[in-house]
Write a structure and sequence with these properties.
2 helices, about 70 residues, single chain, about 75% helix, mainly alpha
């Protein structure tokens, strides 16, 4: 497993942890009728998931390209 693949899996794991934190904290409405929720966790989770997916796609593309070129 290459370093790029491990890095992309780490990004995906961080994104999932952020989403789990968002789900665990939940949301509520205070006495003034204002919604209180940890919205940054949701947005950061999407950012890390998309970055991890893009990095994993690049890692797979590099591996396919190297295999198509053949041995040196």
């Amino acid at each position: 497993m290459t370093k790029l693949t491990l890095f992309s899996l780490a990004l995906l794991a961080i994104g999932l942890v952020l989403w789990a934190g968002y789900a665990a904290q939940g949301s509520s409405v205070d006495e003034n009728g204002v919604l209180q929720e940890p919205f940054p966790l949701l947005a950061l989770g999407w950012l890390f998931i998309l970055a991890g997916g893009a990095t994993l796609t690049a890692a797979v593309g590099i591996r396919i390209f190297k295999n198509l070129r053949g041995p040196k």
